[in-house]
Amino acid sequence: MEYALALLVLAALVAAVVWLPLRRRGEEERHEETMLAELSAAKEAKYREIRDAELDHRMGKLSRDDWRSVDRDLRAEAIEILRQLDRIEGRTPDGGMDR
Amino acid sequence: MEGVGSACLAVALLTALYAVAASIYGGRTRRRAWISSGRRAMYCVAALSVTAFALLESAFLRSDFSYALVAEGSSRDTPTFYKVTAVWATQDGSLLLWVTLLSIFSTTVLFLTRRSLRDITPWATAVLGCIAAFFLLLMVGWENPFDTLAVPPPDGAGLNPLLRHPAMMIHPPMLYTGYVGFSIPFAFAIGALIARRTGADWIRATRRFALIAWTFLGTGIMLGALWSYTELGWGGYWAWDPVENASVMPWLVGTAFLHSIMVQEKRGMLKVWNVSLICATFTLALMGTFLVRSGILESIHAFGASTIGVQFLVFIGLVIAVSAGLIIARLPYLRSEARLDSLLSREAFFLLNNLVLVGLCLVILWGTFFPLISEAITGTEASVGPPWFNRLVTPLALVLVLLTAIGPMLAWRRFSPSSLRRILTVPLAVVAVVLVVLLALTNAADSPPSLAMFCLVAFVLAAVGQELWRGTVARRTVSGESWPRALARLTGRNRRRYGGFLVHAGIAVLFLGVAASSAFLDQRDVRLSPGESFEVNGYDVTYREATAKLGGDSAGTGAPISFGAVLDVRKNGKHFVLRPSRNYYASSDPSLGTISRFFEGEATSEVDVRWGLTRDFWLAVRPDIGSLEQPIREADAKFADSPGDVQALIIASLAERYRSDPPPAAFRAIASPLVVWIWIGGGIAVLGALVAAWPSPEARLRRVRSLYSARVGQELSRA
Q1: Which of A91, B341, B561, B673 suits a disulfide with A86, CB 3.0-4.6 Å?
Q2: Minimum Cα–Cα distance from A9: chain B residue
């Protein structure tokens, strides 16, 4: 009797724990898809900013020192976006590519 | 509570099987929800296993003899410390310990990798779930630790007296933690093969687990050697016993693995070799667990015959078949990304060290299973003894120590002969000085292999010292820091490198102890009466008096009777006293008399050792209680039905009779040089491994930042 009761209670507890991600599946995946789309767009925008800054520097609109400072900040922001993307996609910093 | 314990195991088994199914489904369909569900299932297996283990511990502490396991492995008079540890002295309890440790390790690694390696982790989860399910199935199907007795006995049989030793009780969990720890890199290697992600990601994610497993396994082996030295009464620490060999084989292959993964991380080479090594390490770890319990080979460490040998063999066979099949199927993905540039490079020496380590393992494997092989071929069981092992292992060990010195001094890719000359000058000079001193001042030349080992140990220590010196000088040149700060910063920022050097130094010191103590020990076996003396290695030993203690042995093992001796030892004007003894445990054999059962049960040696940095003096006694046989037999006949306190008085009078008029006792005395350095070296190696395994967030941040910077640059140039 004790065995059967314990079996039922423990099985119910385990079922609740392992079932949770399956129940939240749709909601979480939708949220992640939205986040991924937003972050991908943000990444492309940031890359565009980096290229624009470089072009401005080449055209003489930005001094070398100013361009370096801007470029460093923009790349740091791009790295932060990549980090967030990797966290959602479960990839390693090298982009999940095997050497 | 036995129902709750059994239910924990049954639900854990079903949950582990669910983890396997959910993870495989999630891995194949790339559905995150199922992968997450499988991972959570493994967390639940850990919670259930820990609960079951706690319930069993509680039963042992309460001396609840309604549990068959408690009745078999404990007793009311077993000291509390040994009640706690008696759980894993039994087969069922050790299986529960295995699965509990495995589930804790699995939970830790799966939690740490929950947001990374998404291609590999579902498959690794499935592998870990399979291993957990196998051990749970053994318990649910055949060896349930929560089995109960219809009629509980008033007292239990008690813990095997040989196991009543502090080192022996910590030794099994250490070994098991080592064995279990290797299942993590194994699972991720299999996951990487299935997912075709054969880069170094799986290595980076599990390297620390492999290092921790290696450290625990090594510590377990060292503690086992200490137990053998101080408990078994033969005076040695290593007997090439099958169970000892079974623990050292995965450690050797694991050592090779820890070196060769560096080559894959740095150069993208040795991929097939690395996955093969970790599969072999895990298989050997399973075999180690199996050998302790199976009784298929004669061993002083095999405590009881197993009922699960066939199941273990089937599982080991499956592990080998699946691993080999996967490696063959994935060969196209396991091609090296670089070639060996030069034979004079760190990777070439690492490869050589790997070959020596695997060679050592194969020699030991052959020697260990030789009795089975010879029986299968000739029909007669023959075994190889320590001389066979020593003859083959000694030259390989010498080569290994040589490589330990040279390998870390070399650079990756290639190293010029002129640079080699430069870095070898100081260590070789140290070796020359040590050689001259040894030849001039000691008798080390009497044992050429030991002399060679002493020189090689000096070579390793000088090489490690030189590396530290050069690194500190280089850092001081750049930073201008003080010497201690520069050394601390140097090692702190390169923990893996300098932790590894410390491990090398520790292993070298350990080999120093082995070489000295095995070649230059002095041993004497004598029979003495009180007042008589003997001499060994300059020690004058006098048997002062006999001792007899009831219910209070010096080691606190709970032995009811302990006969011993007090001996005065003198050397070079110094005097110390040793008190070896022999403990007698009551037998539960009902055919023995009520008094004689206290003298005819198991007996264990409690040796006394005078530890010293240069030499140990080890002493064991074997009292002759034959003179008590007649009075014991008479007491059996006269006091069979007497109350317990009367019987206790009779036993006390018999003990006093031995103490006051002792017959000659047998003594074994050993003067062993430098033996304590085996454990000091082991301790240094453990410290080094901890330094190497300690997380270095700064280094990780630096690496991650540079990887992201490179990726941004790459993606910008592509567009």
Answers
A1: A91
A2: B7
Q: Which residues pair with B575 in a beta bridge?
A: B570
Beta-strand pair B574-578/B603-606 = unpaired
Q: CA distances (Å), B195 to each of B120, B131, B668, in order?
A: 6, 19, 60
d(CA B599, CA B616) in angstroms, rounded, equals: 31
Using CA coordinates, name the residue in chain A closest to B37.
A18
Place of tokens 């050993």: B670
Separation between Cα atoms, residue B83 and residue B101, nearest integer Å = 19
Longest CA pairwise span in chain A (Å): 85
- Give the pLDDT confidence score for residue B172 in this predicted structure: 84
Q: Which two tokens stand for residue B66?
A: 């309604």
Question: Contacts of residue B31 in chain A, CB cutoff 8 Å?
Answer: 25
pLDDT tens column, B692-714: 998 776 767 777 788 888 888 88
Rounded CA gap, B250 and B352, in Å?
18
B183-195 vs B91-112: helix crossing angle, rounded to 10: 50
CA distance B75 to B98: 24
pLDDT digits (tens, 9 = 90+) for B452-507: 999 999 999 999 999 999 999 999 988 888 899 999 888 888 888 999 999 999 99
User: Would you call A51 an interface residue with chain B, using a CB distance cutoff of 8 Å?
Assistant: yes
CA distance B350 to B128: 30
Distance between CA atoms of residues A57 and B451, nearest Å:
70
Q: Is the ipTM of this complex over 0.90?
A: no
Tokens at residue B311, please?
A: 């199941």
- Domains of chain B, each with CATH number or no CATH: 1-159 (1.20.120), 416-520+678-689 (no CATH), 522-674 (no CATH)
Q: What is the mean pLDDT of residues B128-136?
A: 97
The segment with the largest mean pLDDT, out of A57-66, B355-364, B442-451, is B355-364
Q: Do A93 and B197 touch (CB under 8 A)?
A: no
Whole-number pLDDT of residue B297: 61
Those residues with Cβ within 8 angstroms of residue B614's Cβ, 6 or more apart along the chain or in another chain: B673, B674
**Residue B449, Ramachandran bin (φ over 0: left; ψ between -120 and 50: alpha; else beta):** alpha
**Is the torsion defined by CA of A3, A5, A7, A13 positive or negative?**
negative
Sorted by sequence, the CB contacts under 8 Å of residue A49 that are 6+ apart come out as A74
User: In the prediction, which pLDDT does B296 show?
Assistant: 61
CA B568 to chain centre: 36
